[in-house]
Amino acid sequence: MFLLYGGLFFLLLGRFMYIQATGVAEGQVLSAKADSKYNREQVLQASRGKIIDRNGEVIVQDTLSYKMVAVISPKATENSKAPRHVIDPEKTAQVLSQYIDMTEEEIVALLKKNIENEKYQVEFGKAGRDISHKKMNEIKAHNLPGIIFSQDLKRLYPNGQFASHLIGFALKEENEDGEAETKGKMGLEYIYDKALTGTPGKVEFKSDTKGFLLPNAEKMVTEPKNGQDIYLTIDKTIQNFLEDALNNAEEKYNPEKMTAIVANAKTGEILAMSQRPTFEPNTRDGLSTNWLNEATEQTIEPGSTMKIFTLASAIEEGVWNPNDHFKSGSYTLFGDTIRDHNNGQGWGSITFLEGFQRSSNVSMAYLLNRMGDEVFIDYIHRFGFGEKTGIDLPNEATGTVLDTYPLNRVTTTYGQGTTVTPIQMIQGMTAITNNGKMMQPYVIDKIVDPNTGEVLSNHKPTEKKSPISAETAEKVKEILASTVTSEYGTAKRFKLDEYTTAGKTGTAQIAKPGGGYYWGREVFLYSFLGMAPVEDPQLIVYVTVHKPHLELTESGSQPVAEVFNTVTEKSLKYLNVQPENLELASPIEMPNVVGKNIIESQSMLESQGLKTVIIGQAENVIEQYPSAGTSIISSGTVFIKGQGEIQLPNFTGWSKRNLMIYKSLANIPIEINGEGFVTEQSLTAGSIVSSETPVVVKLATPEEVTENAPLEEEIVEELPQD
């Protein structure tokens, strides 16, 4: 017996020593077995990147929501006096069906099916996600056993209908592991889905079998990495002006569709872009089968707005003589007849200037004859038609320059047959507004890693090959302005109350799907491509309205003008372009003062009529805005930053735009409340401030600003980089 029990003892001891030495029992690594039993891992969600406007205003972001789960296993209630699992599926379904998008029958079937399969818990799919805090509390008030909530993130579009076809939307969908993840489905959300998507983190810790953290157990945390933030050139305020104007026109005229773009006339930055019909991205209400961004992905026959580029080509070629006469009414080419828009009656023998002001098709045919059709088609390509602009958006259409036959080249002069995109029209117009320098349109300002603050991509204005000279551009501007002011002008309706405008109207036939064209005042495409103010254009605005419903007394240009005039006038006021200074102010090129003495720089700039805002009054200039080489009105405001203490200026009357520039350069945490112009500030002028000094500023709209509040006299071209 002694030998038997002694042998067993030594055998058991040997076994213990072997396990202790090797850590292996029955072929399994015990440390791994223990880790799997006690180690826990919790996922830390990463936020999807924000989409932000040029002024730092959030357009799209993630917001906190909740996900609902039903615990259905009786194991959850072990060692608990109160039930922790669903004990009455019917009652649970009756309550939940009042709050989520599932019927009682669907909920009961889901719960019972998973109870039979001995599942521990069950989710409710899409219906159980994106639950608001208020709804969660309402459900909790029913004290349903087993119904629990976990924090989740929901994509929020706080502005509703807001450049919806540009921004797009993102939705949650289940991946292969059954986990829900947000995926971009349209627009920028889809294009930049990879950049916007963050990387989840995790927390690893040891717990007991019930999931409670063990005493003195260490937690290993891997921080989540949020998705990249995308900053747009879009200006939220101007975009809202555009959305409101389109909504009003849609309600009043019920057109088939509309498209509108507002661009910076100097840089090609897109400040606003929208279309109708549109949709609500939070709910997708109104989303039709057309998911295309009409401004870049769809082509149109532009009509008479194309005459802008025919005119510019003729002037550049030296064949434009405004006082020469031609016989209006009709023009015959190889048996085909071109007619003016008044049924070919014309206005007798008139000058070419009057012909342009009246939007005569025949005048364009004679100009083509003077410059040669091949030369003209070459200019059309120089203006960027027939090829992509290169805007930073996908699936851009090219359009087609129709020049196969002589008749095609004639009709192209007045925008019939040849197709273009609205964004091409904007690009071509920059050559007119920007002294012959054609600028590539763009909508992405920069992409920033919010985890590190690193700017991953920084877009700058891109100048393309100039199609015309500065002298030609100036002459075209003058002639376009006359279409608004002349007694013969077709654009009289586009005259603004406080600013000068220039541009060209368009009335185009719309092609039928099976060939041919629609005909009738309610089946045309009406448009206007314009700029303002004429003296130094700041904005280009292009508006198209397809097939509006018109009263007998209304013309097709009315809905176009209502959109253009409202948006342009409000935007110029918002940008603080002062109409009373325009006749006296002339554009100058901003000099480079970086590295120069700040006091001497201030004196030099003010000697040129510029107003200066000083940020830090010591030593040399380390930063300036606008940047060197930028065109600015001679009475405009410039910002120069030096070193030393920063004294807070008197912000009263400042525009929000200039406030954002100051905030960026001074690196002061300024909280901006309201829209329009500054009426109040929390710290008095002259206070010494730093990056740790909070400042609150209150703004009011132009209508709310008192008559005695001084407004800045300035023109600012673009926001500085943060």
* CATH class bucket of the largest domain: Alpha Beta
Find the structural class using helix and strand composition: alpha+beta
- Which percent band covers the strand fraction? 15-25%
In the predicted model, the low-confidence regions spanning at least 5 consecutive residues are 705-722
Tally of discrete structural domains: 4
Strand tally is 33
**Percent of residues in helices:** 25-40%
CATH homology superfamily name of the largest domain: DD-peptidase/beta-lactamase superfamily
As for the CATH topology of the largest domain, it is Beta-lactamase
Q: Figure out the total of helices.
A: 20
Shape: globular
Q: What is the CA-CA span between the terminal residues?
A: 87 Å
Gyration radius, in Å? 33 Å
- Compute the average pLDDT: 87
CATH architecture of the largest domain: 3-Layer(aba) Sandwich
The biggest sheet, with number of strands, parallel, antiparallel or mixed sense and barrel status, is: 7 strands, mixed
Organism: Psychrobacillus lasiicapitis
InterPro entries: Beta-lactam/transpept, Beta-lactam/transpept-like, PASTA_dom, PBP_dimer, PBP_dimer_sf, PCN-bd_Tpept
Domain PASTA: 584-644, 645-701
Catalytic activity: Preferential cleavage: (Ac)2-L-Lys-D-Ala-|-D-Ala. Also transpeptidation of peptidyl-alanyl moieties that are N-acyl substituents of D-alanine
